[in-house]
């Protein structure tokens, strides 16, 4: 991967720098002209979020914050999936400690992305169910390619999405639309997501999506970064405070629910259906 990334950069000229391949499942490239960092998830085939991807995402977000980038664009290395959400295989037939770790690291990624003062945007170049939608809605702006699906489908898995997990979603959708979508576990098409306000723009290619995200981040060029960042965080402070109060209990609640025989059974059936889908 390191080799192919370097080749890609050389072929493109020196307009962007690959800051890090220290982590295996994410890469960070900073555009020399704009100073904007692109954080790419690369865990084939569908960027399902196992503990390693969640840790790598946290490391990359810290790196982008520390290298003084002007903003962060989150995207995927794959052609039709942004992220399939949590890796269900990692949560199936496992012990409670593993479930606690998975959930703790999901919380850590969410708070790192939701709570950064940097401008953030998601170039959603494929499907974004569940944890994929969570990451996209933690960002301030979303641009999505046509004919894909996005949404929080936890209800379909027998899981109750906690309030913090819903907050990015409920911040951008009217309350009534959000309540109905969450109780149905609804997946929106790109067009439906755009019409509802879940995504801000539609782009016909990943490159165009990244460009539109960069234009959004560029719109802050003349705004004082400290004032911008603190204003953003004031808007998010209530969600963050509420999350901090319940984060430990939330891990315990998730581990208890996800390890219950009922939810394990739903996960087993869900995984079977996913595998069989490939055979049809
Ligand atoms: C149960 C606890 C819930 C905890 C709370 C919520 C957070 C979550 O994130 S739960 C995860 C919910 N995710 C989903 O429901 C998405 C499931 N996946 C899909 O709908 C499709 O795979 C997707 C639309 C993302 C992509 O479709 P395709 O491009 O057609 O790919 P395939 O469906 O053929 O999948 C390829 C390959 O990947 C495996 N896969 C897909 N999703 C996951 C996943 N979330 N975890 C682990 N593995 C996943 C799928 O089984 C296929 O594997 P193979 O058959 O071995 O190729």
TrEMBL record:
Query: Keywords assigned by UniProt?
Result: Acetylation, Fatty acid metabolism, Isomerase, Lipid metabolism, Mitochondrion, Transit peptide
Source domain of life is Eukaryota
Q: Which GO terms describe its cellular component?
A: mitochondrial matrix
Q: InterPro entries annotated for this entry?
A: ClpP/crotonase-like_dom_sf, Enoyl-CoA_hydra/iso
Q: Name one GO molecular function term.
A: delta(3)-delta(2)-enoyl-CoA isomerase activity
Give a GO biological-process term: fatty acid beta-oxidation
KW Isomerase (keyword) present = yes
Catalytic activity entry: (3Z)-dodecenoyl-CoA = (2E)-dodecenoyl-CoA; (2E)-tetradecenoyl-CoA = (3Z)-tetradecenoyl-CoA; (3Z)-octenoyl-CoA = (2E)-octenoyl-CoA; (3Z)-decenoyl-CoA = (2E)-decenoyl-CoA
Q: Where is this protein localized, as stated in its record?
A: Mitochondrion matrix
Q: In which pathway does it act?
A: Lipid metabolism; fatty acid beta-oxidation
* Claim: Transmembrane is one of the keywords in the record: no
The protein's matches in Pfam families, at most eight in alphabetical order, are given as:
ECH_1 (PF00378)
Question: What sections of the sequence does the record tag as coiled-coil?
Answer: none
Q: How does it assemble?
A: Homotrimer.
Stated role: Key enzyme of fatty acid beta-oxidation. Able to isomerize both 3-cis (3Z) and 3-trans (3E) double bonds into the 2-trans (2E) form in a range of enoyl-CoA species, with a preference for (3Z)-enoyl-CoAs over (3E)-enoyl-CoAs. The catalytic efficiency of this enzyme is not affected by the fatty acyl chain length.
UniProt protein name: Enoyl-CoA delta isomerase 1, mitochondrial
Please tell me the species this chain comes from.
Drosophila yakuba
